[in-house]
Amino acid sequence: MIPTRPIEVLSVEDNPADARLIQMVFDSLATKTNLHFAADGEEALDYLYRRGKYSDATRPDFILLDLNLPKKHGREVLREIKSNDELKRIPVFIFTTSGAIEDVQSCYGLHANCYITKPQDLEQFGMVLKAIEQFWVNIAELPYFP
Predict the structure, then answer these.
(1) 3-state class of 67 per DSSP?
(2) Structural domain contains residue 32
(3) Distance between CA atoms of 61 and 68, rounded to whole angstroms?
(4) How does pLDDT run across 6-60, given as a tens digit for each residue?
(5) What are the residue ranges of helices labelled H in 83-121?
(6) Which residues contact 143 (CB under 8 A, 6 or more apart)?
């Protein structure tokens, strides 16, 4: 079932090329999405806690989180999200270049909802993001945030 309201997505991505690809794919989806970006871990937490310039930020329906971020590593951001009673219900999808088993294990230990290694092929990159939309938006029930 396609949602009746736009889906709010926070992408925490420091690589401008990947951010552009993510934007292009989400722009092409059947589901209306409002895609918001944070370029580092601290900015992501400012967005989520609605601090500073993000005082009127919309609570995301899910988060695409890179691991290797400046200022605050993705695992630290994940740890903080999942330890906060107001934020921990937001699904967090690790979307990173690392396929290291230590990273996978660590993120699932911190309660990531899924771990995806970014494909290097552009077509595969788009297919992965479309699969996220298909499952997490059209099949799974996302938590409701009033």
Answers:
(1) coil
(2) yes
(3) 22
(4) 889 999 999 999 999 999 988 888 778 899 999 999 999 999 999 999 999 999 9
(5) 101-109
(6) 61, 89, 90, 91
Burial environment of residue 56 by CB neighbours within 10 A (0 to 12, 13 to 18, 19 or more): exposed
DSSP H helices in the chain: 16-28, 41-49, 74-82, 101-109, 122-132
pLDDT digits (tens, 9 = 90+) for 51-86: 999 999 999 999 999 999 999 999 999 999 999 999
The SS3 assignment for 115 reads: strand
> Cβ contacts of residue 37 below 8 Å, gap of 6+?
10, 11, 12, 13, 19
Q: CA gyration radius for the chain?
A: 14
State the pTM of this model: 0.90
Q: Assess if residue 144 is contained within a domain.
A: no
Q: How far is CA 61 from CA 92, 117, 125, in A?
A: 9, 21, 21
Assign residue 121 the CATH number of its domain: 3.40.50.2300
Contact yes or no for 71/42 (Cβ under 8 A): yes
Check residue 71 and give left, alpha or beta (phi > 0: left; psi -120 to 50: alpha). left
